[in-house]
Protein backbone atom coordinates (compact mmCIF):
# COMPACT_ATOMS: atom_id res chain seq x y z
CA UNK A 1 0.00 0.00 0.00
CA UNK A 2 2.89 2.37 0.73
CA UNK A 3 5.16 1.02 -2.04
CA UNK A 4 4.42 3.88 -4.43
CA UNK A 5 5.50 6.34 -1.74
CA UNK A 6 9.00 4.84 -1.66
CA UNK A 7 9.92 5.40 -5.32
CA UNK A 8 12.00 8.56 -4.81
CA UNK A 9 9.46 10.92 -6.31
CA UNK A 10 10.98 14.34 -7.01
CA UNK A 11 10.23 17.56 -8.90
CA UNK A 12 13.08 19.77 -10.13
CA UNK A 13 13.13 23.38 -8.97
CA UNK A 14 12.45 24.94 -12.41
CA UNK A 15 9.34 22.81 -12.92
CA UNK A 16 8.19 23.59 -9.41
CA UNK A 17 8.67 27.35 -9.76
CA UNK A 18 6.76 27.37 -13.04
CA UNK A 19 3.78 25.45 -11.62
CA UNK A 20 3.33 27.15 -8.25
CA UNK A 21 1.90 30.59 -9.26
CA UNK A 22 -1.03 29.18 -11.23
CA UNK A 23 -1.72 26.57 -8.56
CA UNK A 24 -1.74 29.16 -5.78
CA UNK A 25 -4.07 31.43 -7.72
CA UNK A 26 -6.49 28.59 -8.42
CA UNK A 27 -6.45 27.48 -4.76
CA UNK A 28 -7.19 31.01 -3.59
CA UNK A 29 -10.08 31.31 -6.04
CA UNK A 30 -11.51 28.00 -4.84
CA UNK A 31 -11.07 29.04 -1.21
CA UNK A 32 -12.92 32.34 -1.74
CA UNK A 33 -15.68 30.54 -3.66
CA UNK A 34 -15.99 28.13 -0.73
CA UNK A 35 -16.39 31.10 1.62
CA UNK A 36 -18.92 32.79 -0.66
CA UNK A 37 -21.16 29.76 -1.05
CA UNK A 38 -20.73 28.57 2.55
CA UNK A 39 -22.52 25.37 1.60
CA UNK A 40 -20.09 22.87 3.12
CA UNK A 41 -16.97 22.73 5.34
CA UNK A 42 -13.60 21.25 4.41
CA UNK A 43 -11.69 19.06 6.85
CA UNK A 44 -8.10 18.00 6.21
CA UNK A 45 -6.54 15.23 8.31
CA UNK A 46 -2.73 15.16 8.48
CA UNK A 47 -1.11 11.84 9.43
CA UNK A 48 1.93 9.72 8.70
CA UNK A 49 5.62 9.34 9.46
CA UNK A 50 7.46 11.91 11.55
CA UNK A 51 9.82 13.96 9.40
CA UNK A 52 7.81 13.37 6.21
CA UNK A 53 6.76 16.99 5.93
CA UNK A 54 3.48 17.14 7.83
CA UNK A 55 4.24 20.43 9.55
CA UNK A 56 5.82 21.89 6.40
CA UNK A 57 2.69 21.05 4.43
CA UNK A 58 0.49 22.90 6.91
CA UNK A 59 2.79 25.92 6.65
CA UNK A 60 2.64 25.72 2.86
CA UNK A 61 -1.16 25.71 2.81
CA UNK A 62 -1.27 28.73 5.12
CA UNK A 63 1.13 30.56 2.78
CA UNK A 64 -0.54 29.60 -0.49
CA UNK A 65 -4.09 30.22 0.71
CA UNK A 66 -5.79 32.85 2.87
CA UNK A 67 -4.92 31.82 6.45
CA UNK A 68 -7.94 33.74 7.79
CA UNK A 69 -10.19 31.03 6.35
CA UNK A 70 -8.06 28.15 7.67
CA UNK A 71 -7.97 26.93 11.24
CA UNK A 72 -5.28 24.49 12.34
CA UNK A 73 -6.09 22.29 15.32
CA UNK A 74 -3.44 20.20 17.05
CA UNK A 75 -4.40 17.32 19.32
CA UNK A 76 -1.57 16.29 21.60
CA UNK A 77 -2.00 15.27 25.22
CA UNK A 78 -5.58 15.31 26.39
CA UNK A 79 -6.45 18.04 28.86
CA UNK A 80 -8.29 17.33 32.09
CA UNK A 81 -11.38 18.87 30.48
CA UNK A 82 -11.10 16.44 27.55
CA UNK A 83 -10.35 13.42 29.71
CA UNK A 84 -13.58 14.05 31.59
CA UNK A 85 -15.65 13.54 28.43
CA UNK A 86 -15.93 11.06 25.55
CA UNK A 87 -13.06 11.45 23.04
CA UNK A 88 -15.38 12.63 20.25
CA UNK A 89 -16.09 15.76 22.28
CA UNK A 90 -12.58 17.16 21.73
CA UNK A 91 -12.89 16.77 17.97
CA UNK A 92 -16.55 17.67 17.51
CA UNK A 93 -16.26 21.05 19.21
CA UNK A 94 -13.42 22.11 16.87
CA UNK A 95 -14.98 21.18 13.54
CA UNK A 96 -14.87 23.93 10.90
CA UNK A 97 -18.16 25.63 9.99
CA UNK A 98 -19.51 25.75 6.45
CA UNK A 99 -17.37 27.85 4.16
CA UNK A 100 -14.16 27.30 6.14
CA UNK A 101 -11.23 24.89 6.14
CA UNK A 102 -10.07 22.98 9.20
CA UNK A 103 -6.77 21.11 9.45
CA UNK A 104 -6.57 18.45 12.14
CA UNK A 105 -3.01 17.61 13.14
CA UNK A 106 -2.63 14.74 15.58
CA UNK A 107 -6.23 13.65 15.01
CA UNK A 108 -8.14 10.46 15.90
CA UNK A 109 -5.87 8.34 13.69
CA UNK A 110 -2.76 9.56 15.47
CA UNK A 111 -4.32 8.77 18.82
CA UNK A 112 -5.26 5.18 17.99
CA UNK A 113 -1.98 4.38 16.19
CA UNK A 114 0.24 5.74 18.95
CA UNK A 115 -1.81 3.92 21.56
CA UNK A 116 -1.40 0.63 19.67
CA UNK A 117 2.33 1.06 19.01
CA UNK A 118 2.92 1.91 22.66
CA UNK A 119 0.94 -1.14 23.75
CA UNK A 120 -1.78 0.77 25.57
CA UNK A 121 -4.45 -0.93 23.44
CA UNK A 122 -4.54 -4.22 21.52
CA UNK A 123 -5.22 -4.69 17.80
CA UNK A 124 -8.90 -5.47 18.36
CA UNK A 125 -9.36 -2.21 20.25
CA UNK A 126 -7.52 -0.32 17.50
CA UNK A 127 -9.83 -1.87 14.90
CA UNK A 128 -12.83 -0.76 16.97
CA UNK A 129 -11.42 2.77 17.09
CA UNK A 130 -10.94 2.69 13.31
CA UNK A 131 -14.55 1.61 12.84
CA UNK A 132 -15.70 4.45 15.10
CA UNK A 133 -13.60 6.87 13.03
CA UNK A 134 -15.17 5.52 9.85
CA UNK A 135 -18.68 6.08 11.26
CA UNK A 136 -17.75 9.61 12.35
CA UNK A 137 -16.38 10.42 8.90
CA UNK A 138 -19.44 9.00 7.21
CA UNK A 139 -21.62 11.20 9.41
CA UNK A 140 -19.55 14.28 8.52
CA UNK A 141 -19.73 13.51 4.80
CA UNK A 142 -23.46 12.80 4.99
CA UNK A 143 -23.80 16.26 6.52
CA UNK A 144 -22.01 17.68 3.46
CA UNK A 145 -18.39 17.96 4.62
CA UNK A 146 -15.53 17.55 2.13
CA UNK A 147 -12.92 15.36 3.81
CA UNK A 148 -9.27 14.94 2.78
CA UNK A 149 -7.04 12.38 4.52
CA UNK A 150 -3.30 12.58 3.87
CA UNK A 151 -0.69 10.05 4.92
CA UNK A 152 2.83 11.43 4.53
CA UNK A 153 5.34 8.63 4.10
CA UNK A 154 9.09 8.10 4.34
CA UNK A 155 10.92 4.84 3.78
CA UNK A 156 12.83 3.49 6.76
CA UNK A 157 16.10 4.12 4.97
CA UNK A 158 15.30 7.75 4.20
CA UNK A 159 14.09 8.40 7.72
CA UNK A 160 17.38 7.12 9.17
CA UNK A 161 19.42 9.08 6.61
CA UNK A 162 17.56 12.27 7.47
CA UNK A 163 18.12 11.79 11.20
CA UNK A 164 21.83 11.11 10.78
CA UNK A 165 22.35 14.17 8.59
CA UNK A 166 20.49 16.54 10.85
CA UNK A 167 21.85 15.40 14.21
CA UNK A 168 25.41 16.23 13.08
CA UNK A 169 24.48 19.67 11.73
CA UNK A 170 24.50 22.22 14.55
CA UNK A 171 22.45 24.68 12.47
CA UNK A 172 19.67 22.21 11.66
CA UNK A 173 19.67 19.67 14.49
CA UNK A 174 16.75 21.54 16.08
CA UNK A 175 14.56 20.36 13.17
CA UNK A 176 14.56 16.85 14.61
CA UNK A 177 11.86 16.44 17.20
CA UNK A 178 11.93 13.88 20.03
CA UNK A 179 8.96 12.21 18.33
CA UNK A 180 11.10 11.41 15.30
CA UNK A 181 13.73 9.66 17.40
CA UNK A 182 11.02 7.72 19.21
CA UNK A 183 9.28 6.71 15.99
CA UNK A 184 12.54 5.62 14.34
CA UNK A 185 12.82 2.93 17.00
CA UNK A 186 9.33 1.55 16.27
CA UNK A 187 9.17 2.38 12.56
CA UNK A 188 8.21 -1.11 11.37
CA UNK A 189 5.47 -1.45 13.95
CA UNK A 190 4.06 2.01 13.20
CA UNK A 191 3.96 1.38 9.45
CA UNK A 192 2.41 -2.06 9.97
CA UNK A 193 -0.47 -0.70 12.01
CA UNK A 194 -0.69 2.44 9.89
CA UNK A 195 -1.19 0.34 6.79
CA UNK A 196 -3.90 -1.66 8.55
CA UNK A 197 -5.80 1.48 9.57
CA UNK A 198 -5.44 3.14 6.16
CA UNK A 199 -6.70 0.01 4.41
CA UNK A 200 -9.72 -0.31 6.69
CA UNK A 201 -10.79 3.34 6.58
CA UNK A 202 -10.24 4.40 2.97
CA UNK A 203 -13.70 4.90 1.45
CA UNK A 204 -15.05 6.56 -1.66
CA UNK A 205 -16.44 9.46 0.40
CA UNK A 206 -13.20 9.82 2.43
CA UNK A 207 -10.23 8.21 0.64
CA UNK A 208 -6.66 8.23 1.87
CA UNK A 209 -3.95 9.97 -0.18
CA UNK A 210 -0.47 8.54 0.45
CA UNK A 211 2.19 11.15 -0.29
CA UNK A 212 5.94 10.57 -0.41
CA UNK A 213 7.41 13.27 1.79
CA UNK A 214 11.14 13.20 1.06
CA UNK A 215 11.02 15.84 -1.71
CA UNK A 216 9.31 19.08 -0.67
CA UNK A 217 8.59 20.17 -4.25
CA UNK A 218 6.83 16.91 -5.12
CA UNK A 219 4.98 16.90 -1.80
CA UNK A 220 3.70 20.47 -2.11
CA UNK A 221 2.52 20.17 -5.70
CA UNK A 222 0.83 16.83 -5.08
CA UNK A 223 -1.07 18.03 -2.02
CA UNK A 224 -1.98 21.34 -3.68
CA UNK A 225 -3.38 19.66 -6.79
CA UNK A 226 -5.36 17.08 -4.81
CA UNK A 227 -6.96 19.85 -2.75
CA UNK A 228 -7.66 21.97 -5.80
CA UNK A 229 -9.30 19.19 -7.78
CA UNK A 230 -11.39 18.12 -4.80
CA UNK A 231 -12.50 21.67 -4.01
CA UNK A 232 -13.36 22.48 -7.61
CA UNK A 233 -15.39 19.31 -8.04
CA UNK A 234 -17.31 19.91 -4.79
CA UNK A 235 -17.97 23.56 -5.61
CA UNK A 236 -19.14 22.67 -9.09
CA UNK A 237 -21.74 20.23 -7.77
CA UNK A 238 -24.97 21.88 -6.68
CA UNK A 239 -25.46 19.39 -3.88
CA UNK A 240 -23.23 16.83 -2.22
CA UNK A 241 -24.21 13.33 -3.43
CA UNK A 242 -25.87 11.00 -0.95
CA UNK A 243 -26.57 7.31 -0.89
CA UNK A 244 -30.13 6.59 -2.01
CA UNK A 245 -32.12 5.69 1.12
CA UNK A 246 -34.98 3.26 1.50
CA UNK A 247 -38.37 4.89 1.19
CA UNK A 248 -39.05 4.59 4.93
CA UNK A 249 -37.83 2.42 7.78
CA UNK A 250 -41.32 1.69 9.04
CA UNK A 251 -44.90 2.28 7.95
CA UNK A 252 -47.99 3.04 9.96
CA UNK A 253 -49.49 0.06 11.72
CA UNK A 254 -52.04 -1.76 9.57
CA UNK A 255 -54.15 -2.68 12.60
CA UNK A 256 -54.01 0.83 14.14
CA UNK A 257 -52.09 -0.43 17.15
CA UNK A 258 -49.05 1.65 18.06
CA UNK A 259 -46.60 1.65 20.93
CA UNK A 260 -48.03 4.72 22.67
CA UNK A 261 -51.58 3.42 22.48
CA UNK A 262 -50.51 0.39 24.49
CA UNK A 263 -49.65 2.49 27.56
CA UNK A 264 -51.93 2.41 30.60
CA UNK A 265 -52.78 6.10 30.81
CA UNK A 266 -55.03 5.63 33.85
CA UNK A 267 -52.11 5.28 36.26
CA UNK A 268 -52.07 7.97 38.92
CA UNK A 269 -50.93 8.87 42.43
CA UNK A 270 -52.97 10.30 45.28
CA UNK A 271 -51.72 13.63 46.56
CA UNK A 272 -50.54 12.37 49.96
CA UNK A 273 -48.73 9.37 48.51
CA UNK A 274 -47.25 11.61 45.82
CA UNK A 275 -45.68 13.90 48.40
CA UNK A 276 -44.08 10.97 50.21
CA UNK A 277 -42.72 9.28 47.08
CA UNK A 278 -41.54 12.54 45.54
CA UNK A 279 -39.58 13.44 48.68
CA UNK A 280 -38.16 9.91 48.86
CA UNK A 281 -36.93 9.89 45.28
CA UNK A 282 -35.56 13.44 45.45
CA UNK A 283 -33.58 12.56 48.56
CA UNK A 284 -32.35 9.42 46.84
CA UNK A 285 -31.21 11.44 43.82
CA UNK A 286 -29.41 13.97 46.01
CA UNK A 287 -27.48 11.17 47.72
CA UNK A 288 -26.56 9.50 44.44
CA UNK A 289 -25.19 12.58 42.67
CA UNK A 290 -23.03 13.37 45.69
CA UNK A 291 -21.73 9.80 45.95
CA UNK A 292 -18.01 9.26 45.34
CA UNK A 293 -18.77 6.94 42.43
CA UNK A 294 -20.36 9.85 40.59
CA UNK A 295 -16.82 11.12 40.02
CA UNK A 296 -16.43 8.38 37.42
CA UNK A 297 -19.68 9.19 35.65
CA UNK A 298 -21.69 11.99 34.17
CA UNK A 299 -25.45 12.06 33.72
CA UNK A 300 -27.42 13.13 30.64
CA UNK A 301 -31.21 13.32 30.82
CA UNK A 302 -33.30 13.68 27.67
CA UNK A 303 -36.90 14.90 27.91
CA UNK A 304 -39.19 14.53 24.92
CA UNK A 305 -42.94 14.24 24.80
CA UNK A 306 -46.26 15.54 23.57
CA UNK A 307 -46.91 19.25 23.85
CA UNK A 308 -48.28 20.02 27.36
CA UNK A 309 -47.18 16.60 28.65
CA UNK A 310 -45.44 18.13 31.67
CA UNK A 311 -41.78 18.06 30.68
CA UNK A 312 -41.05 21.36 32.40
CA UNK A 313 -42.71 20.25 35.64
CA UNK A 314 -40.80 16.96 35.63
CA UNK A 315 -37.52 18.78 35.05
CA UNK A 316 -38.21 21.15 37.94
CA UNK A 317 -38.78 18.22 40.31
CA UNK A 318 -35.42 16.83 39.25
CA UNK A 319 -33.53 20.10 39.69
CA UNK A 320 -35.12 20.71 43.10
CA UNK A 321 -32.95 17.86 44.41
CA UNK A 322 -29.72 19.10 42.82
CA UNK A 323 -27.00 21.61 43.62
CA UNK A 324 -27.28 24.27 40.86
CA UNK A 325 -23.52 24.11 40.41
CA UNK A 326 -23.74 20.50 39.23
CA UNK A 327 -26.12 20.76 36.29
CA UNK A 328 -27.21 22.75 33.26
CA UNK A 329 -30.57 22.69 31.51
CA UNK A 330 -30.33 22.99 27.73
CA UNK A 331 -33.56 24.07 26.06
CA UNK A 332 -33.45 23.02 22.42
CA UNK A 333 -35.24 25.18 19.87
CA UNK A 334 -34.63 25.98 16.22
CA UNK A 335 -30.88 25.95 15.47
CA UNK A 336 -28.99 29.23 15.35
CA UNK A 337 -26.97 30.31 12.33
CA UNK A 338 -23.81 29.13 14.08
CA UNK A 339 -25.40 25.72 14.65
CA UNK A 340 -26.67 25.47 11.07
CA UNK A 341 -23.08 25.87 9.87
CA UNK A 342 -22.03 22.71 11.71
CA UNK A 343 -22.99 19.01 11.52
CA UNK A 344 -26.32 18.32 13.17
CA UNK A 345 -25.00 16.71 16.37
CA UNK A 346 -22.41 19.45 17.00
CA UNK A 347 -24.92 21.57 18.94
CA UNK A 348 -25.43 18.67 21.37
CA UNK A 349 -21.84 17.47 21.68
CA UNK A 350 -20.85 20.88 23.00
CA UNK A 351 -23.17 20.45 26.02
CA UNK A 352 -22.02 16.99 27.13
CA UNK A 353 -21.04 17.32 30.81
CA UNK A 354 -17.71 16.30 32.36
CA UNK A 355 -17.55 13.57 34.97
CA UNK A 356 -19.42 14.41 38.11
CA UNK A 357 -21.81 16.79 36.33
CA UNK A 358 -25.28 16.59 34.75
CA UNK A 359 -26.99 17.96 31.67
CA UNK A 360 -30.76 18.04 31.16
CA UNK A 361 -31.98 18.39 27.57
CA UNK A 362 -35.46 19.88 27.24
CA UNK A 363 -35.99 18.54 23.72
CA UNK A 364 -32.96 17.03 22.09
CA UNK A 365 -31.27 15.54 19.04
CA UNK A 366 -34.46 13.59 18.42
CA UNK A 367 -35.95 16.69 16.87
CA UNK A 368 -34.57 15.58 13.52
CA UNK A 369 -36.63 12.38 13.49
CA UNK A 370 -39.71 14.02 15.00
CA UNK A 371 -40.46 17.69 14.30
CA UNK A 372 -38.09 18.04 11.34
CA UNK A 373 -39.36 14.79 9.84
CA UNK A 374 -43.07 15.48 10.25
CA UNK A 375 -42.92 19.16 9.34
CA UNK A 376 -40.63 18.63 6.37
CA UNK A 377 -37.78 20.77 7.73
CA UNK A 378 -35.21 18.24 6.55
CA UNK A 379 -35.04 15.77 3.69
CA UNK A 380 -36.05 12.15 4.01
CA UNK A 381 -32.41 11.17 3.50
CA UNK A 382 -31.40 13.38 6.44
CA UNK A 383 -33.82 11.97 8.99
CA UNK A 384 -33.26 8.41 7.85
CA UNK A 385 -29.52 8.93 8.18
CA UNK A 386 -30.03 10.46 11.63
CA UNK A 387 -31.08 7.14 13.17
CA UNK A 388 -27.63 5.68 12.67
CA UNK A 389 -25.88 8.89 13.70
CA UNK A 390 -27.92 9.11 16.91
CA UNK A 391 -27.25 5.48 17.81
CA UNK A 392 -23.50 5.96 17.31
CA UNK A 393 -23.62 9.18 19.33
CA UNK A 394 -25.42 7.55 22.26
CA UNK A 395 -23.20 4.47 22.21
CA UNK A 396 -20.15 6.72 22.39
CA UNK A 397 -21.62 8.47 25.42
CA UNK A 398 -22.46 5.30 27.33
CA UNK A 399 -19.15 3.65 26.44
CA UNK A 400 -17.37 6.48 28.24
CA UNK A 401 -19.37 6.34 31.49
CA UNK A 402 -22.14 8.74 30.63
CA UNK A 403 -25.36 7.58 32.24
CA UNK A 404 -28.02 8.33 29.63
CA UNK A 405 -31.73 8.33 30.45
CA UNK A 406 -34.34 9.17 27.80
CA UNK A 407 -37.97 10.00 28.56
CA UNK A 408 -40.99 10.28 26.34
CA UNK A 409 -43.82 11.85 28.33
CA UNK A 410 -47.08 10.71 26.78
CA UNK A 411 -50.59 12.09 27.17
CA UNK A 412 -53.72 11.33 25.23
CA UNK A 413 -55.38 13.73 22.85
CA UNK A 414 -58.22 14.72 25.16
CA UNK A 415 -55.90 15.55 28.05
CA UNK A 416 -53.76 17.66 25.75
CA UNK A 417 -56.79 19.69 24.60
CA UNK A 418 -57.83 20.22 28.21
CA UNK A 419 -54.37 21.48 29.19
CA UNK A 420 -54.18 23.77 26.15
CA UNK A 421 -57.46 25.44 27.17
CA UNK A 422 -56.28 25.79 30.78
CA UNK A 423 -53.13 27.52 29.59
CA UNK A 424 -55.17 30.00 27.58
CA UNK A 425 -57.33 30.82 30.61
CA UNK A 426 -54.53 31.24 33.19
CA UNK A 427 -52.53 34.42 32.73
CA UNK A 428 -49.16 33.21 33.92
CA UNK A 429 -49.44 30.07 31.79
CA UNK A 430 -50.62 31.77 28.63
CA UNK A 431 -47.08 32.13 27.29
CA UNK A 432 -46.86 28.34 27.09
CA UNK A 433 -49.50 28.03 24.37
CA UNK A 434 -49.08 29.18 20.76
CA UNK A 435 -50.90 28.82 17.47
CA UNK A 436 -48.25 26.31 16.46
CA UNK A 437 -49.25 24.06 19.37
CA UNK A 438 -52.83 23.96 18.12
CA UNK A 439 -51.68 23.40 14.57
CA UNK A 440 -49.50 20.44 15.61
CA UNK A 441 -52.59 18.67 16.95
CA UNK A 442 -53.76 18.31 13.35
CA UNK A 443 -50.77 16.03 12.75
CA UNK A 444 -51.28 13.94 15.86
CA UNK A 445 -51.28 10.60 14.03
CA UNK A 446 -48.17 11.49 12.02
CA UNK A 447 -46.31 12.40 15.20
CA UNK A 448 -47.42 9.19 16.89
CA UNK A 449 -46.10 7.14 13.96
CA UNK A 450 -42.81 9.06 14.11
CA UNK A 451 -42.51 8.49 17.86
CA UNK A 452 -43.14 4.77 17.48
CA UNK A 453 -40.56 4.64 14.71
CA UNK A 454 -38.08 6.58 16.85
CA UNK A 455 -38.44 4.29 19.86
CA UNK A 456 -38.19 1.14 17.76
CA UNK A 457 -35.04 2.39 16.05
CA UNK A 458 -33.20 3.99 18.97
CA UNK A 459 -34.21 2.16 22.14
CA UNK A 460 -31.30 -0.14 22.83
CA UNK A 461 -29.71 -1.96 25.72
CA UNK A 462 -27.18 0.85 26.16
CA UNK A 463 -29.69 3.69 25.69
CA UNK A 464 -33.28 2.55 26.35
CA UNK A 465 -36.33 4.79 26.15
CA UNK A 466 -38.59 5.15 29.17
CA UNK A 467 -42.18 5.82 28.16
CA UNK A 468 -43.93 7.81 30.89
CA UNK A 469 -47.69 7.77 31.30
CA UNK A 470 -48.21 11.48 31.94
CA UNK A 471 -51.97 11.99 32.04
CA UNK A 472 -51.37 12.28 35.79
CA UNK A 473 -48.49 14.68 36.36
CA UNK A 474 -47.79 13.40 39.85
CA UNK A 475 -47.35 9.83 38.64
CA UNK A 476 -45.11 10.99 35.78
CA UNK A 477 -42.79 13.04 38.00
CA UNK A 478 -42.20 10.19 40.43
CA UNK A 479 -41.60 7.71 37.59
CA UNK A 480 -39.03 10.04 36.04
CA UNK A 481 -37.13 10.45 39.30
CA UNK A 482 -37.22 6.75 40.08
CA UNK A 483 -35.93 5.87 36.62
CA UNK A 484 -32.99 8.28 36.96
CA UNK A 485 -32.12 6.86 40.37
CA UNK A 486 -32.31 3.27 39.16
CA UNK A 487 -30.03 4.10 36.22
CA UNK A 488 -27.43 5.73 38.47
CA UNK A 489 -27.46 2.83 40.92
CA UNK A 490 -27.05 0.33 38.07
CA UNK A 491 -24.08 2.30 36.72
CA UNK A 492 -22.46 2.55 40.16
CA UNK A 493 -22.87 -1.20 40.66
CA UNK A 494 -20.62 -1.80 37.65
CA UNK A 495 -17.84 0.28 39.24
CA UNK A 496 -17.74 -0.64 42.91
CA UNK A 497 -14.14 0.40 43.45
Task: Round the Cα radius of gyration to an integer and report it.
Answer: 27 Å
Largest beta sheet: strand ordering: 2-3-1-4-5
Biggest β-sheet strands, sense, barrel: 5 strands, parallel
Q: What share of residues are in beta strands? A: 5-15%
Instruction: From the 3D structure, determine the CATH topology of the largest domain.
Output: Rossmann fold
Helicity level: 40-55%
Distance between the termini: 46 Å
CATH class placement of the largest domain: Alpha Beta
The domain count comes to 2
Tally of strands? 10
User: If classified by CATH, what would the architecture of the largest domain be?
Assistant: 3-Layer(aba) Sandwich
Order of helices and strands: HEHEHHEHHEHHHEHHEHEHHEHHEHHHEH
Shape: elongated
Q: By helix and strand content, what is the structural category?
A: alpha/beta
Low-confidence stretches: 247-251
- The chain-level mean pLDDT equals 88
- The fourth-level CATH homologous superfamily of the largest domain is P-loop containing nucleotide triphosphate hydrolases
Report the total helices.
20
